[in-house]
């Protein structure tokens, strides 16, 4: 992007008396913001078309005064004299032009802003204390900055529908709607689902969906994000928490390989919402509803809270040192070829690296991650539902593609060749290994956050962390290295996955000690060429590209095929398995 | 509601729909949405939920796209009407002539309980208990000189006696007879012969005995000779003639037609469109009605010459929905012209192809704004576009170069070809050339249309000589000179008007309202505008608050609602004048009205902002005594808090005295821990 900018011609623009330079194609409203003169706006959204309907971004605009020779007349400062247009102009729909002048805080502009604020508020409910948008409402914010506190309006307000269920996840209060049309444009231009529209006319205009259609596309909650007021609300979040109490943690979504950048809103170790965080390299300003709401499992009733070991045929709670020691002892009974490790494409690079160290210490060859596939779309949702397939590819070694060894592992378990199975953050269901067979394994070590049928059969159970409970890094489907951050603490005695793996590694007797995620990352950067020169801190909030698409392993398309095949085989085996009574 | 519909559409209707779809480029089927809705409503009486789904499906659109239209355009009904549907004009000239009384009497005679008119919201139709009749108030029907008017079914009824609604109903019931005189009832006397101060060019045949809308009649009178002549000229020759003629647009803004045309690059790769704006709906204006209804071929000839000059192979006539007969007359005229090869392929052997289609609006004043019209023609709500970047000549219909001209303007093109640009420019005054049609309505004895040489007649001549003067015993109070959006002129004002002399010098003259020449520049200099030529005369019996309220209601009803100041401000102004009329005016009201107007004008997407603000600004400014008289109550206590944010930030203005009911305040405040 930076290269594009430098190659476009630069225009001189005077903003509030100071001359600046902007590349051709810069919107006036953006130029003003870059120059430190923020222009308020409601309908304008930089990722959507500009209808210019809210009139909040009115500014004064002018162009160089031309002399008889059609050349700009210069003032005493050697700069062009500007002829100001008598009428205010919107700044959201025009690009900068050379010699353009802009005033964002003149008396006329302030009068326009006060006027528009007054108009927007006359029919808007003034019940801010009980509005769910309070605290992040642009009507509130701009009232403070550009409005007045006194109302001159004595008439009856226009009544409109309230509490309209637009779809499974979005609820609308039409009285709060300021008709900016951002949501309509989002549905048309980004989600490609032309479902919202305005009905009726004038001051009675109402936002709605056709009664026979619902706003239920997988991007519907983005309309809530871009709604500048309290009209569109998330049915899941509304009235659950005042937004000013939310602690915001920048992280990424782990529901697919896209790795949308997010803000996790929490209070006292409870996640209330996830919202997209702008990153033009990844997700623009959006994320899908599926990923956004995919955090509820962290609060599941049946979270694994205590380490457990098998004692006299039963799983009993244990403290961490006991559980780790037990696991190490069990594993060391067997030689490398008798052990298999199934890791997860949902694990971070750091966790995967430690896993590979465990494998190396034990001489394990059979190590793989479980592919996870689902329908994708052409917007954000990837077919690869693992957030870190590329990380697994890089760190576990590229001798074989993720998932390629799985069938071999499953067959080796069944044939009895494998005596010890370590399964990290995955469910054996995905492998088609019958639970009964797992029960026959002398050693079966499980690390997970939720129990499943197989957990019952484990010899050691490690309760671990979900995506919002830990730090770490992942490489998304397009090769961008990004960071997860801890938004909440794990429940009970559950521990950060990397710590569990480090302790296990030490107990086995392999490797030297690392004391933080940053340390682990440094080791990765020393051993994996694509991470060379990077530190955890250098990843930054927006991530760094470490793989260009064309640098991705050449087996990528083959990989797709192999994975599809593997899934088909798994499915067939599952189908063939006798139904449990 | 499910997506499947059980409605069976008759084959004939389906065929008409397919024909309608064929009038638009195949990649812009959405344009056919309004024609389909019209066809559906004509057949089934209203637009049902199923209709929305059916039409959306037919055009490959989402149902919301159709619902958006049905609810934007008031002519589309979502409920079945009575067997006879009566639309009464609510707007100023008709209201002054008694249309509210007419509605009241109609409802009483028909036993219709009509809910009180909502504050600016379109009141749905009200149906009688027996289902035989339904009534509806509509905005200006563009027959302001024959008010009060109403439409019974598709038939316009003029000069209706508000007190004898029963006669009207009997008449309406038997009105199945074929339309005569271009679909106009002839209760109003024809204006023939023209007044001696008139110079009839466009209206040469309007009201003329023996004149019909047939092409044969038109051809006998030398019709289409100018088209033939134009086809022998080069495009630039025609454009230059129009430039030299000094023709200014007759739709309202008065923009130079030649200059507008010169924005089109004839070598543009994209198709070029010409749109004839026949959405005449500015209250007080009814000039285009007579061109369309009585001389359609003149318009068609003007359009075809313009098409050729602009290299526009397709022209659409966007005619307001309330002119159903007009649309039929134009459609017939197009077919007649086609038979004579005046349009279609290879017109008169010139190699030029040109098609003209009629597209009906459906009751939205905003579609008279050229970009609102273009959106409407594209099958959307009539939301005007922002300029820049959407100047029609660059990014118009279907994002192609487009010229939108008013009906009267396009007719003038024919006469410019006939006379030559320079000779045409000799008509009227410099920069105000040609003739134009003025429409006089309101408190005069002989309201009507008058075609004059621009500026050759003064306001006084127009009112007293041509329109017969005021009613006996009445004095002139005010004139709205260019359609209801023009700023009002007070009868006792003195105007300073600069006049350009033939030698180029400028002389300033002070004059009374009677002396103002009826041209573009003089009316602008007088602080108003010539607008669309609709002159509304108000005598001393009129309550100016009532008049403004009627105008406010029009604009609140017609605001498209797209941009904030107009959407919110137009209804607010109406609510204030509503309250003043109810006796609840407070002292601040005149000031509030004015500042609301100030906050709209110049800050909106389109000129509707000015159109709705100017009446309020000018009425309050020019008749302060009347507004003050109705605004005498003390200001109600404002809502707390009264602090501005700036004041709150300045510490000394935050109340520091302990509050009696809050013992904790003093303590906390004293410790500075609050």
Write up what this structure looks like:
The complex is a heterodimer of chains A (581) and B (674). Chain A contains 16 helices and 24 strands. The N and C termini of chain A lie far apart (59 Å). In chain A, α3 runs antiparallel to α4, α8 crosses α13 and α9 crosses α14. Chain A is of the alpha+beta class and 581 residues long. Chain A folds into 3 domains: 114 residues, Ubiquitin-like (UB roll) (Roll); 143 residues, Alpha-Beta Plaits (2-Layer Sandwich), CATH 3.30.70; 267 residues, Rossmann fold. The longest helix of chain A is centred in the C-terminal third of the chain and has 21 residues. Chain B is α/β, with parallel strands linked by helices. Chain B folds into 6 domains: 62 residues, Arc Repressor Mutant, subunit A (Orthogonal Bundle), CATH 1.10.10; 100 residues, Glutaredoxin, CATH 3.40.30.10; 212 residues, NADH-ubiquinone oxidoreductase 51kDa subunit (Rossmann fold); 111 residues, Ubiquitin-like (UB roll) (Roll), CATH 3.10.20; 86 residues, NADH-ubiquinone oxidoreductase 51kDa subunit, iron-sulphur binding domain (de novo design (two linked rop proteins)); 35 residues, no CATH class. In chain B, 39% of the residues lie in helices and 13% in strands. In chain B, α9 crosses α17. The longest helix of chain B is centred in the C-terminal third of the chain and has 18 residues. Chain B starts with 10 loop residues before the first helix and ends with a helix. The C terminus of chain B is likely disordered. Chains A and B meet through α3, α4 and β9 of A and α3, α4, α21, α22 and α23 of B.
């Amino acid at each position: 992007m930076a290269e594009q900018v430098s190659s476009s011609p630069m225009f001189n623009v005077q903003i509030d008396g100071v001359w600046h330079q902007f590349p051709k194609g810069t919107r006036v409203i953006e130029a003003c913001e870059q120059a430190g003169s923020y222009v308020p706006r409601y309908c304008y959204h930089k990722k959507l078309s500009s209808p210019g309907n809210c009139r909040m971004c009115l500014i004064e605009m002018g162009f160089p005064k031309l002399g008889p020779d059609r050349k700009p007349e210069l003032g005493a400062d050697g700069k062009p004299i500007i002829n100001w247009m008598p009428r205010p102009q919107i700044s959201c729909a025009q690009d900068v032009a050379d010699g353009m002048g802009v005033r964002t805080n003149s008396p006329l502009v302030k009068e326009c802003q006060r006027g528009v604020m007054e108009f927007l508020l006359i029919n808007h409910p003034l019940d801010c204390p009980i509005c769910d948008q309070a605290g992040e409402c642009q009507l509130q914010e701009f009232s403070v900055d550009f409005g007045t506190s006194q109302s001159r309006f004595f008439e009856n307000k226009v009544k409109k529908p309230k509490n309209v269920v637009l779809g499974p996840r979005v609820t609308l209060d039409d009285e709060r709607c300021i008709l900016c049309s951002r949501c309509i444009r989002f549905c048309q231009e980004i989600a490609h689902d032309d479902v919202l529209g305005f009905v009726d006319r004038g001051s009675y205009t109402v936002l709605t969906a056709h009664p026979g259609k619902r706003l239920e596309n997988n991007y519907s909650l983005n309309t809530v994000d871009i709604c500048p007021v309290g009209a569109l609300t998330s049915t899941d979040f509304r009235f659950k928490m005042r937004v000013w109490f939310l602690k915001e943690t920048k992280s990424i979504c782990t529901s697919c390989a896209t790795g949308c950048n997010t803000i996790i809103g929490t209070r006292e170790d409870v996640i209330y919402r996830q919202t997209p965080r702008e990153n033009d390299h990844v997700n623009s300003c959006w994320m899908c509803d599926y990923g956004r709401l995919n955090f509820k499992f962290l609060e599941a009733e049946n979270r694994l809270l205590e380490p457990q070991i098998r004692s006299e045929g039963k799983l009993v709670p244990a403290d961490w040192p006991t559980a780790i020691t037990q696991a190490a002892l069990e594993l060391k009974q067997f030689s490398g070829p008798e052990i298999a490790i199934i890791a997860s494409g949902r694990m971070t690079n750091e966790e995967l690296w430690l896993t590979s160290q465990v494998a190396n210490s034990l001489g394990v060859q059979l190590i793989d991650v479980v592919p996870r596939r689902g329908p994708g779309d052409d917007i954000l949702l990837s077919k690869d539902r693992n957030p870190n397939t590329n990380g697994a590819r890089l760190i576990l070694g590229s001798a074989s593609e993720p998932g390629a060894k799985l069938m071999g592992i499953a067959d080796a378990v069944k044939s009895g060749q494998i005596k010890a199975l370590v399964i990290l953050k995955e469910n054996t269901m995905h492998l088609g290994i019958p639970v009964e067979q797992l029960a026959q394994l002398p050693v079966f070590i499980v690390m997970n956050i939720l129990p499943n049928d197989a957990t019952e059969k484990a010899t050691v159970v490690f309760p671990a962390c979900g995506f919002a409970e830990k730090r770490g890094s992942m490489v998304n489907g397009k090769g961008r290295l990004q960071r997860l951050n801890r938004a909440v603490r794990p429940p009970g005695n559950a521990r950060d996955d990397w710590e569990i793996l480090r302790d296990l590694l030490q107990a086995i007797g392999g490797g030297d000690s690392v004391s933080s995620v940053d340390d682990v990352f440094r080791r990765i950067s020393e051993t994996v060429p694509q991470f060379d020169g990077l530190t955890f801190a250098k990843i930054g909030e927006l991530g760094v590209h470490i793989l260009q698409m064309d640098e991705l392993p050449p087996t990528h398309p083959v990989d797709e095929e192999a994975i599809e095949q593997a899934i088909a085989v798994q499915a067939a085996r599952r189908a063939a398995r006798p139904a449990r009574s | 509601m499910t997506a499947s519909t059980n409605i069976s559409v008759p084959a004939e209707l389906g065929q008409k729909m397919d024909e309608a779809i064929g009038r638009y480029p195949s990649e812009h089927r959405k344009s056919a949405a309004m024609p389909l809705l019209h066809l559906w409503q004509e057949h089934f009486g209203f637009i049902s939920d199923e209709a929305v789904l059916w039409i959306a499906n037919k055009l490959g659109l989402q149902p919301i796209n159709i619902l958006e239209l049905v609810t934007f355009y008031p002519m589309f009904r979502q409920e079945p009407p009575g067997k006879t549907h009566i639309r009464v004009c609510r707007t100023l000239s008709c209201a002054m002539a008694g249309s509210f009384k007419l509605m009241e009497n109609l409802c009483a005679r028909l036993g219709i309980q009509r809910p009180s008119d909502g504050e600016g919201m379109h009141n749905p139709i009200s149906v009688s208990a027996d289902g035989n009749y339904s009534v509806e108030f509509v905005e200006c029907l563009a027959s302001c000189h024959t008010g009060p008017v109403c439409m019974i079914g598709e038939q316009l009824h003029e000069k209706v006696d508000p007190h004898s609604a029963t006669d009207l109903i009997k008449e309406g019931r038997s009105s199945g007879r074929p339309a005569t005189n271009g679909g106009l009832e002839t209760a109003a006397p024809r204006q023939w012969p023209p007044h001696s101060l008139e110079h009839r060019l466009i209206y040469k045949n309007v009201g003329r005995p023996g004149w019909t809308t047939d092409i044969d009649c038109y051809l006998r009178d030398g019709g289409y000779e100018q088209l033939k002549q134009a086809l022998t000229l080069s495009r630039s020759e025609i454009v230059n003639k129009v430039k030299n003629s000094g023709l200014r647009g007759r739709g309202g803004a008065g923009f130079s037609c030649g200059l507008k045309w010169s924005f089109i690059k004839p070598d543009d790769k994209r198709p070029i469109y010409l749109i004839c704006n026949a959405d005449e709906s500015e209250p007080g204006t009814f000039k285009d009605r007579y061109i369309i209804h009585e001389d359609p071929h003149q318009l068609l000839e003007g359009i075809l010459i313009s098409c050729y000059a602009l290299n526009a192979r397709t022209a659409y006539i966007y005619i307001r929905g309330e002119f159903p007969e007009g649309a039929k007359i134009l459609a017939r005229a197009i077919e007649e012209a086609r038979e004579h090869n005046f349009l279609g392929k290879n017109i008169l052997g010139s190699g030029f192809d040109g098609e003209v289609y009629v597209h009906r609006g459906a009751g939205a004043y905003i579609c008279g704004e050229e970009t609102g019209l273009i959106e409407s023609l594209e099958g959307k709500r009539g939301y005007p576009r922002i300029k820049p970047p959407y100047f029609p000549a660059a990014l118009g219909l279907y994002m192609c170069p487009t010229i939108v001209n008013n009906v009267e303007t396009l007719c003038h093109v024919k006469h410019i070809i006939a006379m030559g640009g320079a000779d045409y420019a000799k008509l009227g005054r410099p920069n105000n050339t040609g003739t134009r049609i003025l429409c006089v309505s309101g408190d005069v004895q002989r309201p009507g249309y008058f075609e004059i040489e621009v500026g050759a007649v003064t306001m006084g001549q127009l009112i007293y000589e041509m329109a017969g003067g005021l009613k006996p015993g009445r004095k002139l109070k005010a004139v709205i000179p260019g359609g209801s959006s023009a700023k009002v002129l007070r009868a006792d004002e003195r105007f300073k008007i600069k006049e350009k002399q033939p030698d180029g010098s400028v002389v300033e003259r002070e004059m009374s309202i009677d002396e103002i020449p009826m041209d573009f520049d003089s009316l602008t200099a007088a602080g108003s505008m010539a607008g669309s030529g609709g002159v509304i005369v108000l005598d001393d019996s009129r309550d100016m608050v009532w008049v403004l309220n009627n105008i406010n209601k029009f604009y609140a009803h017609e605001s498209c609602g797209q941009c904030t100041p107009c959407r919110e401000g137009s209804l607010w102004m109406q609510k204030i004048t509503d309250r003043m009329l109810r006796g609840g005016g407070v002292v601040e009201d005149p000031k509030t009205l004015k500042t609301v107007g100030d906050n709209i004008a110049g800050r909106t997407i389109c000129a509707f902002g000015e159109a709705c603000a100017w009446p309020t600004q000018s009425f309050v400014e020019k008749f302060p005594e009347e507004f003050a008289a109705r605004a005498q109550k003390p200001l109600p206590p404002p809502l707390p808090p009264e602090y501005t944010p700036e004041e709150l930030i300045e510490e000394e203005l935050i109340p520091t005295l302990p509050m009696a009911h809050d013992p904790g305040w003093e303590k906390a405040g004293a410790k500075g821990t609050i």
